Amino acid sequence: MKVCIYGAGAIGGWIGTRLARAGCEVSVVARGATLAALQRHGLRLQEKGESVSAPVRASANPAELGAQDLVVVAVKAPAMAAVAEAIGPLIGPDTLVLTAMNGVPWWFFEGFGGDYAGLRLKAIDPDGLIAAAIPARHVIGCVVHASCSLPEPGLVQHHSGERLIVGEPAGGTTPRLERLAALLSGAGFEVEVSQQIQKDAWYKLWGNMTINPVCAFTGATTDLVLDDELTRGFISQVMLETREIGARIGIPIAQMPEDRHQVTRKLGRFKPSMLQDVEAGKPVELDALVTVVRELGQLTGVPTPYTDVLLGLARLHGRVHGLY
Fold this sequence. Notes:
- The protein is an alpha/beta fold.
- The chain has 2 domains: 2-195, 3-Layer(aba) Sandwich (Rossmann fold), CATH 3.40.50; 200-319, N-(1-d-carboxylethyl)-l-norvaline Dehydrogenase, domain 2 (Orthogonal Bundle).
- It has 12 helices and 10 strands.
- Strands 1, 2, 3, 4, 5, 6, 7, 8, 9 and 10 form a 10-stranded mixed β-sheet that branches.
- Strand 7, helix 4 (129-133) and strand 8 form a beta-alpha-beta unit.
- Helix 6 runs antiparallel to helix 8, helix 6 crosses helix 12 and helix 11 runs antiparallel to helix 12.
- The protein is globular, with a radius of gyration of 19 Å.
- The relative contact order is 0.12.
């Protein structure tokens, strides 16, 4: 099976290495130091006390790699416009595009019933360029529950979590989804097939849309954020707004904010991805995590005063530091 990883960061590198070692013919679209490292060493992965590697074909030009059976898009949301411009040569008539990304994806309302079916989210894909470049019929959504880091270009450190939740944007189970789940399971992932992948994406968003930006603009680790009762109370109010929006678009969350805080506490003290991006001088993915929630609040008639404050502070911090 021909698999291309578009975005060989921590998660993309982890998935790519495992698929290559499971027998897939893996290629990678990369640039700069990452491209040089992959051409020299292949993909490298440290996990479970051992180091493994896998040879891959790496190029900055997707046209050199050709049409694939599977493309794993594992970039941060701010990079998606550039991906959309270049991804075309990788997509053939039957190519699957697995989106292993945080936040609300551009295809969120594709095949999703109700009043918002087919809605294009301006915060994610304002001009429809991503949807045009990657038609929804190719997409399978993926929600990743794992912690990985990138000590150096091309080298992934896997810390915890094995879970990949996959699902069709239109819901239900299809033969191609079952085949993909079997492939990922065979590569060592803990795979769950979702009947409504939007619900799984929304639940993950519900936790990290608050912790991520607060840690990013304060520099605090997650434990410090949750230990401060005023900060914890603030992010709980944001979560209640988001919970109400979810209920109105058809993806209710049964838990309350404190329930989700306990899940986060069990992960221990860590720096979430947005704080890591700030420290590395990389763009922050605010739009896919927070701006889009404000947009959905306006669409559904849910007031979002706490979300507005969170977004205002986070984007001001990002602009001052040249990251948004």
